[in-house]
Amino acid sequence: MTRPGIEFHHVWKRFRRGELHDSLRDLVPALGRRLLGRSPPSDALRAGDFWALKDVSFEVAPGHALGILGPNGAGKSTILKILSRILRPNAGSCRVRGRIGALIEVAAGFHPDLTGRENVFLQGAIMGMSAADTLRKFDEVVEFSGIGEFIDTPVKRYSSGMSARLGFAIAVHLDPDVLIIDEVLAVGDYSFHQQAFGRIQELVHRDIPVVVVSHQLDRVAELCTHAILLNRGEIVHRGSAAECIAAYVLNPTVAAMPDPTASNHIVLEGLAFESEAARLFSSSTRRLDAPLPSRGLFELLVELQLNVPPGIYGLEVVIWDRQRGGPTGQRVSGYVQVTAGTDFSGSVQMNPAMQVLTVDPARHA
């Protein structure tokens, strides 16, 4: 039986300003808990401390991809940093077998004063590759990154997109045994997203364990064989990517609405419908000639025809202050899932109907 490439067992991670022990009496029990891997007691937090992860467990086998979902602050990046050995857990264990290709922050690990070329070899050395092996892969890295013209420029002059391109190219081309990718891919353009996720799929098919953190839910659904949903450091749902996405979509974080009786000039103005790549549609109460009451509570019913390909789409309503001439900063957002209907290709569903008619040959003789 193939052993999992990643094992993450009962991991707890606490963040605090400093971990100090005032006496041998305090130090010995703390070391004992670490050695035994016991879960910390509920009273282990001091003032100002918090648990970033609480008893988190999962495994990723070769040929599988795990998606990690959750709102900001849920603990996603903390998991990736523990997997990448940047952080150590306070309790529990994390085992990753083989060479790790990781991209968890833009330009993480890059030396700003070194050129792109020099940083490729630096990253190769950090991953345990010889200079000869890195040289063998160098042209592939540069070609994939698309920044060959600037490969001998110091990376401190790179844009965030250029850094992400080079970092990703290094992570996926220097023979990783495990691949760990964070939301940093969002800084690239659409064509790079397509290219990057295509490469990740290739690695999964080559039996490499992959862990992905992304808010691009349609990509997670397409790529990941299973997923976990985090909230406040705990796993609140696990299962297939579709199941975890559905659990996430059905419980979106909703911004607090302003008191509608406090002002007579704040109205619901903007309605936007977006995919992970671009804004597909936007409108407003003014465009649709739907004037809102100046005071009091009201409901606004919006109907949409989602004539788009299957996937996960973002929906956002913006509150606009007409007197000030700008958004108030208050938004209501969420996701909708479009399921498959009549098969088609393209960006717009036109709901075609076809009818086959018989022809009388005598009429065309």
User: Can you tell me the CATH topology of the largest domain?
Assistant: Rossmann fold
**CA gyration radius, whole angstroms:** 25 Å
* Percentage of residues in DSSP E strands: 25-35%
Structural class: alpha/beta
Number of domains: 2
Largest sheet: 6 strands, mixed
Q: Can you list the strand order of the major beta sheet?
A: 5-6-7-3-8-9
Number of helices: 8
Distance between the termini: 71 Å
Could you list the spans in which at least 5 consecutive residues all have pLDDT below 50?
Answer: 17-27, 252-268
How do the SSEs run, as a string of H and E? EHEEHEEHHHEHEHEEHEEEE
At the fourth level of CATH, the homologous superfamily of the largest domain is: P-loop containing nucleotide triphosphate hydrolases
User: What is the level-2 CATH architecture name of the largest domain?
Assistant: 3-Layer(aba) Sandwich
